[in-house]
Design brief:
It is built from 8 helices and 13 strands. The chain is α/β, with parallel strands linked by helices. It has one domain: Glutaconate Coenzyme A-transferase (3-Layer(aba) Sandwich). Pfam families: CoA_trans (PF01144).
Length: 251
């Protein structure tokens, strides 16, 4: 039951090129930066990433993106990541953009063993009808477009069929975790982290505070250890190394 890995490098040692990877975090909040850096140091390529966004300010997934290690992104937000936008528009990167709530539910459904579900989100748009550019060619033309999705009527309202997401690996960051893999997320870092943790066939968690089993009250556990296969305890320096995307102060 001791799931603690000796290091982040050991924890990701079997992540292979071409793997699908769900990554927790939102902006710079709750991003598993240490595990991402370990993947970068390993040199794995052609990763298929599932994450809300693809990093910011040269932090998180942005380091893998800048190194050309990501082949495909399933996400909701490009935002101010200029390199993400550049790679997408130049045809270097395939991107499936989907509504944020749909992404969250696709991850949750995959982790819960639900193969697909219907949602009204996207009805009347290219999300349902197909034609969203997934990949451009070198001339700026659409090389790969999204296919149309099945639509059914429920109670007089059309709904589109969305598939649950399962990935080879999931990388998450938690405020506390024990040696059995039980995790607690702090405040806004409890964003896509629990959902990504559920979706991974092998889930690896970096934790800011590693405690012994029993120290986390059962009612405080956000993700039980059954969903987590490996735990990496961070150093105090790693635990407090958190970037701020947009600093707002009052005078």
């Amino acid at each position: 039951m001791n799931k603690v890995a000796a290091s982040a490098e050991d924890a990701v040692a079997d992540v292979h090129g071409g793997a699908s990877v769900a990554v927790g975090g939102f902006g710079l909040s709750g991003v598993p930066t240490v595990l991402i850096q370990a993947l970068l140091d390993r040199g794995v390529r052609d990763l298929h990433v599932v994450s809300n966004n693809c990093g910011a300010m040269d932090t998180g997934l942005a380091v893998l993106l800048a190194a050309g290690r990501i082949a495909r992104v399933t996400g909701s937000y490009i935002g101010a990541n200029k390199e993400f936008a550049r790679q997408y528009l130049s045809g270097e990167l395939e991107v499936e953009l989907i509504p944020q709530g749909t992404l969250a539910e696709r991850l949750r459904a995959g982790g819960a063993g639900i193969p697909a579900f219907y949602t009204p989100a996207g009805i009347g748009t290219q999300v349902a009808e197909g034609g969203l550019p997934w990949r451009y060619d070198e001339h700026g033309d659409v090389a790969v477009a999204s296919p149309p999705k099945e639509v059914r009527d429920f109670g007089g309202t059309p709904h589109v069929l969305e598939h649950g997401i399962r990935t080879d690996v999931a990388l998450v960051r938690a405020a506390r975790g024990d040696r059995h893999g039980n995790l607690v997320f702090s405040k806004s870092a409890r964003n896509f982290n629990p959902l990504a943790a559920m979706a991974g066939r092998v889930t690896i968690a970096e934790v800011e505070e590693l405690v012994e089993p029993g120290e986390i009250p059962p009612d405080a556990v956000h993700i039980p250890g059954i969903f987590v296969q490996r735990v990496v305890g961070l150093t105090p320096e790693q635990a407090v190394d958190k970037k701020i995307e947009k600093r707002t102060v009052t005078s």
